[in-house]
Design goal:
- The structure is a homodimer of 344-residue chains.
- In chain A, 42% of the residues lie in helices and 13% in strands.
- The first copy, chain A, is α/β, with parallel strands linked by helices.
- The radius of gyration of chain A is 25 Å and the shape is elongated.
- In chain A, helix 4 packs across helix 11, helix 7 packs across helix 8 and helix 9 runs parallel beside helix 10.
- The longest helix of chain A is centred in the N-terminal third of the chain and has 16 residues.
- Chains A and B meet through helix 4, strand 2, helix 5 and helix 10 of A and helix 4, strand 2, helix 5 and helix 10 of B.
- Chains A, B: GO terms for molecular function: DNA-binding transcription factor activity; transcription cis-regulatory region binding.
Chain lengths: 344, 344
């Protein structure tokens, strides 16, 4: 066992290099003579010592941390996005500290405070939605490089943003459904979720452009405490029980809503399929990782989470490094891609 | 807009309290006179200042951080467990910093280094599995309060651990399947996953106790790059294509494997159900959040993730506070609970 060293004072004694020199070594190795660097490195080999992440960064301008806030954890869309952010950040030599809002504006506000107090170099924030306290995002933005991710509040139109082009993606699947079968109804969410709402608007626009009458379902919460899957199952379950919508094409606000919709169909003995006119079809949005394993496998339009995560990290690094000014916000939207499977 | 204060020196000038007094206030408010505390608090109201999380903790014994390492993110079992850890930690007044290993031993090792360098007060670690570099866990354990979560390497039998009692949970569902229908075969995983292996062993023991011949499937990887769902789908898909196993009861190593198994059944026109003798039945383990929404809804045995998360936080806090010595490790296993649905 190597001797365990806890402080820089102890380290100075153990390897015979002065405390200020060690300090300079950990903050900026280039500022120390090559011979001394070699002596320190050889000394570090002989002991068990981990330099304190923050102590060695206290006098630097940067902590090397990107702070991330995501709205909830139990959602494979966000875990996939977070993974792509982490991989890109690691490649840029950064450490990622993620805080989750757990669907609660108070926790979201605390997450922002935590990132501020940790002096992270920049923040990537996927906001909760309408429930968010907007002043929290504005305060965070006023203090550090800040990029919105995945969804954006109406109140922050002029902020760096990376997400999906919902007009394109929702338009694409709406047009596909109209082209090969009946025009779809849109199974929405209660209007607190920015992305669901953007897709609802995009659906209406495309339907009108194609000369069809839009029809929106499920903007009211049907069950208490229900979220995406529960909502989709409740809205379609109630309709199917009354004999309605059983031969319709249904475009869902996202894949988790569609998973609930598929469940409602199965419970009423209905099999959504790619069949053309007059049969039940169900489609989603996002390409949730489980889509290919559902029965029937879910037809959807994929968000490019890899590109969104990479671009968000690339953008925040540009702002952190001062390569762009934060005053000219850039909005980057990635197109969605059709994933034709069995359900529509 | 309040004036923005960046350093404690600036703060001292702005609110007229000396730098050392401010320092004592942020590190231990009780050590400062009540009148001065009031003056500082009134001053802080007038400015925009966030004390640096780590600077104010540099001379304290604790950082107030629990570090967590999870093996991968794209799994709703781990996000549910992490949520329960975060909620319990917040209630204990702690900040949680989670690092994900992304299924890569090198990233797991780096995650451990990050937690050490951040001087977290204790670590909760859900290890990757057989692929992990065991010395990483041992080193982390030698440096700080350490509790293993969810699964444990054979090489670390005497370490604080909180997880599920797989002998009980797997025994319970094995016995249920035997009682109401044919004795099940076990759809395993390649033997690098500790929990899947513990369940395999528990299945064999219970089958033998009940006087039935155990039968293990799928211990070899059938497809490259496939993980849980892909593995379940591939193993059963290949068997069904050869006309094998179509009337069997299949207990899967976990629900994600079972999701793949359900998919293979659907693709071969088979409908697993609760029917008794001589029909296909598929069951899982964990109670993955999507189980009730699958078609058919998945019969499984639930892990008590809430209790596991709470107990892990409670245990690490006891060690951090010195209420128990780390020398008498405690193993806490929670029982599973049957969730009877449609698939078995």
């Amino acid at each position: 066992m190597k001797p365990r060293i806890k402080t820089m004072e102890e380290l100075s004694v153990a390897i015979g290099v002065s405390r200020p020199t060690l300090s300079r070594f950990f903050q900026d190795p280039g500022s120390v003579k090559t011979k001394t660097v070699e002596r320190i490195q050889a000394g570090l080999e002989r002991v068990e010592y981990v330099p304190n992440f923050f102590a060695t960064r206290l006098n630097r301008k940067t902590t090397g941390i990107i702070g991330v806030i995501i709205p909830y954890l139990n959602d494979l869309f966000f875990t996939k996005l977070l993974q792509s952010v982490e991989v890109a950040a690691f490649e840029a030599g950064m450490t990622v500290i993620t805080q989750c809002s757990h669907s609660d504006p108070a926790i979201e506000a605390r997450a922002a405070e935590t990132l501020m107090s940790m002096n992270v170099d920049g923040a990537l924030v996927a906001p909760l939605g309408d429930q968010s306290d907007q002043s929290v995002h504005l305060r965070l933005k006023s203090r550090m490089p800040f990029v919105l991710l995945d969804s954006r509040p109406k109140s922050m139109p002029n902020v760096d943003f990376v997400g999906s082009n919902h007009t394109q993606s929702t338009g694409l699947i709406t047009e596909y459904l109209c082209r090969v079968g009946d025009p779809p109804a849109f199974l929405a969410m209660p209007r607190v979720n920015f992305n669901a709402l953007e897709r609802e608007v995009a659906y209406i626009a495309r339907m009108e452009k194609l000369g069809f009458e839009p029809e929106i379902l499920g903007t009211e919460a049907v069950r208490e405490n229900g979220y995406f899957e529960e909502h989709g199952e409740a809205v379609l379950g109630d309709a199917f029980a009354q004999g309605r919508l059983t031969d319709r094409s249904i475009l869902c606000a996202n894949d988790r809503v569609a998973i609930g919709a598929l469940r409602a169909a199965a419970q009423h003995g209905l099999s959504p399929s790619r069949g053309t006119k007059g049969g039940l079809r169900i489609a989603g949005h996002d390409d949730y990782p489980l889509c290919p394993f559902l029965t029937p496998a879910l037809t959807t339009v994929a968000q490019n989470t890899d590109a969104i995560g990479e671009e968000a990290v690339s953008r925040i690094m540009q702002i952190i490094r001062g390569e762009v000014s934060g005053d000219e916000p850039e909005i980057t939207l990635f197109d969605g891609e059709l994933k034709l499977r069995e359900s529509a």
